Structures are given as C-alpha cells and as structure tokens.
Amino acid sequence: MIPGSFAYHRPKSLAEAVGLLADLGEDARPLAGGHSLIPMMKLRLAAPEHLVDLRAIGELRGIRAEGSDILIGAMTTQHEVVASDLLAAKLPILKETSLLIADPQVRYVGTLGGNVANGDPGNDMPAVMIALGASYLLAGKGGERRVAAREFYQGAYFTALEAGEILTAIRIPVPPAGHGHAYEKLKRKIGDYATAAAAVILTLAGGKVASCAIGLTNVGETALFAEEAGRILTGSSLDAETVKRAIAAAEAITAPASDNRGPAAYRRKMAGVMLARALAAAKARAS
Ligand SMILES: Cc1cc2nc3c(=O)[nH]c(=O)nc-3n(C[C@H](O)[C@H](O)[C@H](O)COP(=O)(O)OP(=O)(O)OC[C@H]3O[C@@H](n4cnc5c(N)ncnc54)[C@H](O)[C@@H]3O)c2cc1C
Can you tell me the distance from the alpha carbon of 114 to that of 123, in angstroms, rounded to the nearest whole number? Predict the structure, then answer.
C-alpha cells in the first residue's frame, strides 16, 4: 500500500515538461490527477522513478470551440467537463459519461486526459471518444502529432503514446445539432468500473439513420469501435430486426475477461444489452 520511492518534478510549461520527460527517459511518467497512477503505484503495478506532475501547466487546461471542433485541454478535470455549459450544449454525451465515472471526489481531481491516456479498458471516456471520432494531440521531443482515438488503443495499458510524449488536448468534431447520443453503463454499484458499457452517436434524416458510431467499454483489451454494427444500422429506421443484427455484430467483436464482474459470456451479452439501451435512448433524443 506504500509506493516505491520516486523523484517528483513540477514543470511550469509544456516545453519544460517535454524536456524533463526526454531527459529522464523511460523511468519517468507524467502525473495528472493521479487517481489511476497512484493506486497502481501503491499496488506496485507501476514503479516509475520520476513523476512529472502536469498540474501547474496552464496551457493544458480549458475547453474551447475552434471552428467546427471542440478542444479540451488534457488537464481539464472530469468535474470541469460536467460543469461546462459549452459541452452541455454541443457534446452532451461527455457530461452524461462523466457523471457515471466514480464519485465527485474522484471527478474533482481526475482529468479527461488521464482517463483517455491511461489505456485501461475499464475507463469510460475512450469508447465515447471513439464514437465521437475524436483525436488526441500529442507533444514530444520530436514535435507534435495527432492520433485518432480509433487508432490510439493497442492493448491493455498499451497505447500509441511513445515514451516521453504528453497528451496535450482532445479534439472533437461537434456532431450536428439534434444528434442522438447515449452512454449506457452497467456497474455493480456507484463508483464501479463498467461490467459493460456502450456509447452511441447517431443522426437521423427522414426517420432513417444517416450516421451511427458505436464504442464499447471494458469488454476487450481496449475500448472497441463497433464499426460493422454502425454500418448495419445506417440507412435503417432502427427497426427491431436490424437492431438485433447490429447487436450481434457488436457482441461478436467483444472478448471480455471472466472476472469478479461476471463470466465472459454474461459480460458479452451485457454489452449487447447496453448497446440496445443506448440506441433506444439516442433515437429518442435525436430530432
Ligand atoms: C475509486 C475510483 C473509482 C474510479 N472509477 C472509474 C470509473 O468508473 N470509470 C473511469 O473511467 N475511471 C474511473 N476511475 C479512474 C479515474 O477516472 C482516473 O482519474 C482516470 O482514469 C485517470 O485520470 P488521472 O487524471 O487521475 O490520471 P493519472 O492517474 O495521473 O494518470 C493515468 C495514466 O495516464 C498517464 N497520463 C495522464 N495524463 C497524461 C497526459 N496528459 N499525457 C500522457 N500521459 C498521461 C499517466 O502517466 C498514467 O500512466 C476511478 C478511480 C478511482 C480512484
């Protein structure tokens, strides 16, 4: 329950943080809210020799519109996501999802950037970012680059982030006004990670689905993009037969572990149930 010893660094700018991480090498890790990293260090599942705390870097905070996108600084807390009027108006699925993460104490400190950079398949935001078609802005000593959320997750705790890189912001294209959205999460109790969860973003035109993107949480080694399921639904009126086929396609890409949240077969079925609920909620909200 006591982490190994480490050196603590608190840079004041992104350039300083990037320089520190480059100098300190693979034994250094960025520290955001610490609500995933510190528990892992206490369990000795992580033992970085240097922590580079990003909390004093103002340029990593804030939520703003930029053209048809919204940019959210990586150090924006989950509570700030809940409280943002801009996000409530343009990307309501983010507030809905944040409110399903842990409890207010965790959300006051845990950051959006930490949630998506962590690479834990149990984190809720990656599936939502996949459904939204978001991309992540990364900065390292080699410069800046942008990686689509759909390509970022490579395995449990294994992402496209290279050693020394910092996620600086999340860029999200704003879905059209009147889009349908939902994040449905099955959990054993308040504050629990998902047994299974599904994120849906869809648009309707003339009563038919014009676009549909689906992300799934905690039913594989990474958050999953249920691309085929979205394709099946596009052009449909979300009739029962088509929804059934889409759910089967989504369940087929899952590979959950059997654990204390239930056996694999149950968790796979729950992914389908969460998707059915999310589709119904998104349809009801779409105009
Ligand atoms: C009791 C409890 C319940 C929880 N329940 C849930 C839940 O239901 N759903 C959920 O999604 N989460 C849950 N969490 C996790 C919480 O949301 C964390 O805050 C989040 O996963 C990580 O964000 P952080 O800011 O705390 O990051 P940290 O813990 O500081 O960092 C996490 C990892 O990401 C890396 N990292 C962080 N920021 C950056 C960056 N900008 N650039 C590069 N790498 C970075 C760190 O090096 C570390 O490896 C829970 C946590 C607790 C303590």
Answer: 10
For atom 47 of ligand 1, the residue with the nearest CA is: 30
Which has the closest alpha carbon to 215: 172, 177, 258, 178?
A: 172
Ligand 1 atom, smallest distance to 31 CA: 30
Q: Output the pTM of the full model.
A: 0.97
Return the residue matching tokens 């849906």. 200
Distance 65 CA to ligand 1 centre (A): 24
Query: What are 92's two structure tokens?
Result: 């309501």
DSSP 28-51: EEEESS-TTHHHHHHTTS---SEE
Nearest-CA neighbor of 34 among 135, 115, 124? 115
Average pLDDT of the segment spanning 227-240: 98
* 153-186 per-position pLDDT tens digit: 999 999 999 999 999 999 999 999 999 999 999 9
Residue 235, phi-psi category: left (phi > 0), alpha (psi -120 to 50), beta (remainder): left
